[in-house]
Amino acid sequence: xxxxxxxxxxxxxxxxxxxxxxxxxxxxxxxxxxxxxxxxxxxxxxxxxxxxxxxxxxxxxxxxxxxxxxxxxxxxxxxxxxxxxxxxxxxxxxxxxxxxxxxxxxxxxxxxxxxxxxxxxxxxxxxxxxxxxxxxxxxxxxxxxxxxxxxxxxxxxxxxxxxxxxxxxxxxxxxxxxxxxxxxxxxxxxxxxxxxxxxxxxxxxxxxxxxxxxxxxxxxxxxxxxxxxxxxxxxxxxxxxxxxxxxxxxxxxxxxxxxxxxxxxxxxxxxxxxxxxxxxxxxxxxxxxxxxxxxxxxxxxxxxxxxxxxxxxxxxxxxxxxxxxxxxxxxxxxxxxxxxxxxxxxxxxxxxxxxxx
Length: 357
Description:
By secondary structure, the chain is an alpha/beta fold.
């Protein structure tokens, strides 16, 4: 595998019966998904879902004997290394889809993708796609913590079986999902399935190197953003709709002035080291002092992907920083005060040195 070629990985998740395998079959029939390697995790001793996946037999791997989120993370790393070897040997594989069992907590899987050294050398997380059943979705979110986390960390939320429920029930679910994850607008899965383009290039790091990719990412985070300038807060607070899922909430912060990387990085490391259990996911594109290119960051609980400089800022926008936080049992003001304090501390010594000169 070429050193500059990272295979994008899509994590396909959703609670039991949501319709993940139906969606996967639809996607794999499309030309855009040619060369896709598929990893499927089936809970229990006997796997069935892999028999339904319409792909070349030697491109599908069944991960058995346990839930992907815990007991077989080593199997996942080994399966990915096998895919990397096949690419090095000349096989034309272009991306990977991991379909998890409906019982899987996605966070440990994301940590494996980001933290395993061998995996990080060859693969990059493209996005988390979560399927939610419109008929049972609200009740499932109420009763199943795994389903709640699957929806909260998604980059793309897809609602299946919308034609099998009432408009009132569907509207309630859509509002619930929008509150739980305001940066991943829920989309209805119609009878024709989904265009593969809608799940490709969800990450700025894996998207084709074009302005539209970054603009789309920023646009999708912007509605939830609160503005901060170098002199403090300059925005207003929107209504917080996270009423049902009070333990998990998501928001986006925007900073119009460049941020000092030393101060921000120190604070992020401290936050995840001391409160990693509360930090479900952080992702952001940053305007860093002294750097004329955008910096992408991505963390899951206590694990961080290496920061990546993107090629350039789009011509159509002014550089700014936007960070999405998905938290559990942590107030928003802890984040805002922490960033302000550490960034101020990083700037103050430099000002003092300049005064001495």
